[in-house]
Request: fold
Amino acid sequence: MKKIKYSIINVFCLSLLIFNSWQLAAQENEPDSASPLSDFSVLIGGEWYLDNSYQTFEWGVGKLSVISKSYFLVDGQAKLVAEGAWIWHPGLKVIKGYFTAVDMPYSFFEYTTAFEGKNMMNALTTYTPDGVSETYQENWEFLNDSSFNWSLFAKTEEGLSKIMGGEYLRK
Reply:
């Protein structure tokens, strides 16, 4: 009788553990609409490809950040070239992004990000290893759950001038 009692308790505890693990996993992918970072949920998961490169996005601990990594495909192999995170800055009350990079003209990227409808708008400042900075406007227009248009604009005396762009596809 003791064995049956312990077996039932073990099954109950195991079921409870599995259910709680499932709940935590489900919560990890559900956006918290009250979070300033909730609009990033469309990017979470998969690999986002543009030409010979791709990016990944995942929630940081407690969904207090969004971790992103960028890869170049070199001879069919993925090479990590940039990584960083977007966070909600509680003092400035804005979303900030800080990224480092290798094998690029710039080694540090600083973002100030806002979401407007289906668009992610980024005021971007890039820095060379010597500290020389350039300022850009970067726009991500979300077309659906599997694609977005990316545009990079240089700030010129005449206004914004598009210098790069393309459509990212999730695979």
